[in-house]
Structures are given as structure tokens and as C-alpha cells.
Predict the 3D structure of the following.
Amino acid sequence: MRFVKEIIFAVVLLLGLSATAQFKVDAEIRPRFEYRHGFKTLFPNDTDPAAFVSQRTRLKFDYKNEYLEAFVSLQDVRVWGDVKQLNTADKNGLSIHQAWVNLILDPSFSVKLGRQEIVYDDARIFGNVDWATQGRSHDIAVFKYKKNKFRTDLGFAFNQDAENVTGTTYTVPNNYKVMQYAWLHNDWDNLGASFLFLNNGLQYIDEADSKNDEVRYSQTVGTHLKYNKNGFSLVGNAYYQFGKDKMNNDLSAYLLGLETNYKWTQKVKTGLGVELQSGNDNGAPSNGENKAFTPFYGTNHKFNGLMDYFYVGNHANNVGLLDLYFKANFKLNTKSNLLVAYHNFSAAADLQDYDKKGLGNEIDLVYAYKFKKDVTFKVGYSQLFASEGMEVLKNNFDDNTNNWGWVMVVIKPTLFTSK
């Protein structure tokens, strides 16, 4: 704690707090135990289930005055025991999850520069992936305009390996080289509507001839709509992708989603929804065409079942997905609630050498208890009931039970505030 206080004091001196400035320091400690027996993929024979404790630790500095906002989030991500005792070096080390400044040029216009989380609407295309221990952030410049109930963000990112003397070929895996987007949003009395355009550039590297290295661009365009009135809500997503994928296939793909929710009482809320993401017959692009939708930088763990069988580091350029789901949220008392969700999964395109499209069903249970204002306990259990289609998709016919359980503690204390 003494070390933390010394950091706070040093930052306060560097920022030179004025009488009108605000400065706050928050922390987050989030250990999570997981038991995995068929998480992300079907459990194979002759293997043991996985069990571990992961932990996220963050220290967050937030500064505001009349013309700027600055935010820094230091982060340590680890699995308990991944470094031996008395070790002189850490495995992952301290990293920066966010480090940005938002320059307020006038009451309606600002520019946000640096490493930052990007979250829009329901986080379907852009989200911070908070469930993942490391989370997601972008190195980007975002120009922000806000007037009454209308908002516009324009984002521009250009990624490189290092401060090179020559060349701009980008070799960092699993990341975009260039990205630009426009997000527009307006609110009315009972309706909120957003429009998104994303231009995503991926680096292609020809191992045989570097002269063929190039950036290949895909475009995503679509809308998010949300209607609320008298306890009833209706949420819709519609996105279309075109351009080129990384392997230079012509891209033509779509996502359609519709969800309705109703709050029956102050303690019971239910929802019913459907989401369709297009895919490729036989699970791969063919004839120079790719019909599989990619939700890119969304919080995909939030959608299509908590066991992450789809679009969480997997299922790219595959047969797509049709997800029919029901969920219910029960407020048990002032401090606790229970979420129950059921999903029915089917392929959106034909499976290879199989004439049916059903993939199976999943049940998710999540219980949360707010012990104190800055301490929350969460427990979850999920089970997947795979069909023959899922066995074909995952190439696993062992017919084992597939389940997953976890326990998490989220602690978010405020360590210091200037006001």
C-alpha cells in the first residue's frame, strides 16, 4: 500500500493539479477460478479437464480539467503459479491497457488520442471484451462530436512493428494494420439508432516474394436500433461485409439479429432473440468467394453462448451460425440476481458430408452477489448438449459431457480522489 501511495503522490505532482481539476485513482483485482471440460470445443477422450485461477490486477489514474481528460490503466495479467517463487523476472510483466488523452477543443468537439477501449452500442462489432482477463484496447485517434442527442465518432489507426527506417510491412500477428471507422448515433424519445462504417486493412505477406506484400481491405456497414417503452424493448442489428479478406477472396457476408425483452415486474425480466451470421458451405471459402461474417472487434463472449464455441478465437470463415435463444434475469433481492439463458445452435451454411444443420443446445447460469459497493461475487455454470452436426464441425465423435464452471471475485476500490 505504501508503494501505491508513493505512485499516487508522484502522479499528482506531475499533473500539477489545479483548484478546478479532478484526479482519481481506482484499482481492480479480479481473480477467477475456472473448470473446463469441453470449453470452446468438444471434450476429447483420454484427456483431463483443465482447472486454473487467472487474475487481472489494474491500477487506474483518471485526471480531468476544463480542457482535457487523461486516463492511464496499468495492468498485470497472470495465472496463479505461472512464475515460480523467488523468481527474479515475471512471465508477463506490467503492461498498459489504456493510456489516452481527450483534448476538449470546444463543448461539442474533442480528439481522443492513444491506447483506448472502443465500445459502441451492444458491443457487437466494437467492444472491450471485459470478460477476457487482458481485455481489448486499440492504439488510435478518435475525433468526437456531440450536439444535443446526436454523436459522431471518426476513428483512424495505423499500426507498425517499430520505428523503422524503411518499409511499412506489418508483421504483428492477429491484428489489423490500418483501420478507419465512422460511428453515428442519435437518440429520440423511445428510440436510439446507430450507423457504423468500418474499413479494416489486414497485412498480407507473401513468403516467396516480398514484392507481393499488400494491405487487403474489407468494409463493414450496418445499423444498430433499440426501442424502449413501458418495460418493453426491441433491439435490432443488421450488418453487411464486402471487399476482400486477407487471402484475397471476394467478401460478401451479413449479420442479422433481433431481440425482444420485457420487464414483467421489478424482479423479473425475460428476453427472446435470434441472430444469423452467414457462412461458407463445407466450412471454407471456395471459388474465390468468402460468405462468412466476422464480428471483428466485438465482445463475442457476450453473444452465442458463454462457452465460446463461436467467434471467440475460433469459427472464422466457417459455416456461420443461426442462434435462437431465450434468457431470463431474476432479481432475487437487493444484492443478488440470477441469469438463465438457453441457446439453440444451427449452421447457417451446409456442413461438409452431413445433410443436417443442427449443432446443439447450451444452457448458461450466472449468479451475482454484490457484497459491498466495490466487491461482487459471481458464479457461473454452462453445459453444451452437442448434436451430430457439432461433432462433424469439431471433428470429435467421442460423445463426452461438455461443461464449464467458474467462480470470480471483482474488487474495485477507489484509492484516492481529489474531490
Remarks:
- The CA atoms of residues 161 and 170 lie 6 Å apart.
- The longest helix spans residues 2-15.
- Confidence is low (pLDDT under 50) at residues 1-6.
